[in-house]
């Protein structure tokens, strides 16, 4: 019977069967069970005290036991689980066995799921053996059963998010860094993030008036901060969506280490989901407000403005590095476009646009512009509704915001185009060039201001060329804004022409090289 079940497990997920076979040895099982029970007994002794009566009985402070386990169990899951997974995957990468696993008929999701469930199997066993004590101490301490089940669910979702992030970190940097150093770094990050996460969970499920500090937390007009059930649903949805996108990136990198983290089509859904999530924080409640409602409304407008004109530009510049293929992929794309110029002249423009929108190997400029326009469409109703209707934004209306977004889009495309032009001059990745380019340009602007002894707002024209052109709106005249817009278009046009020439030159040189090699093969055969 047991052999039949093992065979069924091996057929369902061979990688899981392989990991369990390697982890669940007699020694590991003995250590896991022993350590779990010894720690539980030690915790019970610490949480117990003798009652000073004639019976000399022991009294267990179940609430204290529950609180301690509420910290220890998720900490072990997150920190130790991350270390085990990163260490195991890193060793497979360095030994070269990961490439053999990639060649197996299993899907990448099956392989990664098998590792996620199998590598920390002994850790899972120890945690499962401690759950009865945690469950019993919660019931003895009159902790609501429904809340306890929700806590378990949040632990599980957090494990999925943290473990997926650990896989992604290992696949991206495992081949370039030491295995143990990377695993310890990931475990440390998990410890820090886990401390914040566990503290927040314990805070929202605290029965002693926890809602006082969250009463102003609204998301799409829902009073999330006033109800632990709404917070639970919000956290569950947020973490599940985040886990989904990280899992998609892990699967892409696992199948092809040279691919981008997300495809262009995935980036549109990713950006839309992030923008909708951010927009929810800026939608005020629909009911009546208290006496300080104006301050609350102003703070939401400030948050939305910062998101649109500060956080989003940084995010889109980073997205340019994520979506930009590697130089070799760009060379292949240039050769393909050069060939299609002779074969599909009638469909050239249409096919080129489709390739720039959806192609895996095409440059990222068009995809960045589409993502930015998608963001503008998502935020446009909020801009019309909120901007100009509260005291802090009387002079910053929806038309001004749209103009600011247009200037911001131009700047983002300029920086991404500069990085794309420069990437062919080096073997560095596009992401490094984009970060370096932005750093140098921003540092250059600051150096100009410092050298000339001016305030940062004395030359609004320079702000129109920085990643934050919205700052120029407070001091720039209409003429300055118009000249800045024309300057942006001129720079972007020159960079686009340079990119076009580079790709045309790459396509021609690569095609000539291939033709030369193919022509030399018959002559060598005759010799």
Automatic annotation (TrEMBL):
<feature type="transmembrane region" description="Helical">
    <location>
        <begin position="117"/>
        <end position="140"/>
    </location>
</feature>
<keyword id="KW-0812">Transmembrane</keyword>
<feature type="transmembrane region" description="Helical">
    <location>
        <begin position="301"/>
        <end position="323"/>
    </location>
</feature>
<protein>
    <submittedName>
        <fullName>Uncharacterized protein</fullName>
    </submittedName>
</protein>
<feature type="transmembrane region" description="Helical">
    <location>
        <begin position="432"/>
        <end position="452"/>
    </location>
</feature>
<feature type="transmembrane region" description="Helical">
    <location>
        <begin position="229"/>
        <end position="247"/>
    </location>
</feature>
<feature type="transmembrane region" description="Helical">
    <location>
        <begin position="152"/>
        <end position="174"/>
    </location>
</feature>
<feature type="transmembrane region" description="Helical">
    <location>
        <begin position="268"/>
        <end position="286"/>
    </location>
</feature>
<feature type="transmembrane region" description="Helical">
    <location>
        <begin position="364"/>
        <end position="382"/>
    </location>
</feature>
<feature type="transmembrane region" description="Helical">
    <location>
        <begin position="472"/>
        <end position="495"/>
    </location>
</feature>
<keyword id="KW-0472">Membrane</keyword>
<feature type="transmembrane region" description="Helical">
    <location>
        <begin position="181"/>
        <end position="205"/>
    </location>
</feature>
<feature type="transmembrane region" description="Helical">
    <location>
        <begin position="28"/>
        <end position="46"/>
    </location>
</feature>
<keyword id="KW-1133">Transmembrane helix</keyword>
<feature type="transmembrane region" description="Helical">
    <location>
        <begin position="66"/>
        <end position="86"/>
    </location>
</feature>
<feature type="transmembrane region" description="Helical">
    <location>
        <begin position="402"/>
        <end position="425"/>
    </location>
</feature>
């Amino acid at each position: 019977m047991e052999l039949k079940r093992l065979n069924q497990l091996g057929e369902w997920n061979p990688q899981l069967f392989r990991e369990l076979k390697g982890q669940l040895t007699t020694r590991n099982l003995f250590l896991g069970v022993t350590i779990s029970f010894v720690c539980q007994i030690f915790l019970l002794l610490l949480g117990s005290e003798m009652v000073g009566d004639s019976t000399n009985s022991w009294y267990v402070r179940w609430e204290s036991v529950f609180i301690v386990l509420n910290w220890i169990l998720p900490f072990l899951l997150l920190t130790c689980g991350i270390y085990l997974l990163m260490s195991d995957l890193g060793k497979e990468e360095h030994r070269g066995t990961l490439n053999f696993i990639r060649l197996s008929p299993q899907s990448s999701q099956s392989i990664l799921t098998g590792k996620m469930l199998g590598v920390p199997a002994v850790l899972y066993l120890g945690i499962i053996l401690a759950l009865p004590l945690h469950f019993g101490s919660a019931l003895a301490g009159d902790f609501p059963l429904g809340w306890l089940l929700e806590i378990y669910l949040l632990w599980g979702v957090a494990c999925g998010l943290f473990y997926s992030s650990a896989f992604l970190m290992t696949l991206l940097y495992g081949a370039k860094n030491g295995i143990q150093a990377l695993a310890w770094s990931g475990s440390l990050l998990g410890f820090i993030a886990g401390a914040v996460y566990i503290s927040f969970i314990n805070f929202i499920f605290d029965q002693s008036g926890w809602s006082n500090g969250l009463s102003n937390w609204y998301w799409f007009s829902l009073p999330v901060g006033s109800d632990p059930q709404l917070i639970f649903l919000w956290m569950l949805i947020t973490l599940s969506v985040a886990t989904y996108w990280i899992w998609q990136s892990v699967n892409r990198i696992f199948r092809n280490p040279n691919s981008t983290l997300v495809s262009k089509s995935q980036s549109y859904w990713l950006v839309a989901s992030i923008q909708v999530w951010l927009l929810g924080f800026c939608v005020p409640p629909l009911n009546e407000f208290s006496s300080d409602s104006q301050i609350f409304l102003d703070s939401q407008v400030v948050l939305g403005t910062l998101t649109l004109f500060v956080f989003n530009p940084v995010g889109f510049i980073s997205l340019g590095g994520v979506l930009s293929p590697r130089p070799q992929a760009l060379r292949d794309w240039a050769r393909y476009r050069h060939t299609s110029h002779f074969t599909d002249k009638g469909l050239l423009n249409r096919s080129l646009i489709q390739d720039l929108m959806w192609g895996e190997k095409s440059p990222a400029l068009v995809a960045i512009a589409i993502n930015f326009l998608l963001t503008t469409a998502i935020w446009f109703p909020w801009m019309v509704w909120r901007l100009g209707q509260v005291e802090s934004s009387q002079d910053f209306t929806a038309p001004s915001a749209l103009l600011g977004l247009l200037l911001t889009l131009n700047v983002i495309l300029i920086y991404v185009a500069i990085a794309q032009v420069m990437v062919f001059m080096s073997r560095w990745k596009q992401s490094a060039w984009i970060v370096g380019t932005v750093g140098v340009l921003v540092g250059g602007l600051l150096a100009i201001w410092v050298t000339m002894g001016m305030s940062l707002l004395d030359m609004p024209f320079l702000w129109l060329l920085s990643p934050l052109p919205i700052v120029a709106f407070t001091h720039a005249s209409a003429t300055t804004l118009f000249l800045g817009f024309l300057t942006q278009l001129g720079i972007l046009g020159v960079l686009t022409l340079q990119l076009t020439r580079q790709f045309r030159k790459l396509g021609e040189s690569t095609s000539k090289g291939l033709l030369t090699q193919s022509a030399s093969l018959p002559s060598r055969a005759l010799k």
